Amino acid sequence: MRCSRFGVAAFALLALASLPLAAQDRLKSMPGYDRYTQMLPKIQGAIKPGVAAAQWADDGKSFDFLRDGKRLRFDLSTKQVGDARPAPRTLLTHAASAARRAAARRRWRGPQTHRARRSYKDRNLYLAAKDGSAERQITTDGSESLRIKYGTASWVYGEELDQTTAMWWSPDGSKLAYYRFDEKPVKDYFLQTDQTTVQGSVMTEGYPKSGTANPIVDVYVYNDRTEQTRRLEVRDGVPFTDAAVGHYVYGISWTKDGSELLIHRTNRRQNIMELAACQPITGVCRTVVREEWLPSWTENHPTMRWLDDGKRFIWESERTGFKNYYLYDLFGQAARHADAASL
Question: Could you tell me the pTM of the whole model?
Answer without folding.
Answer: 0.65
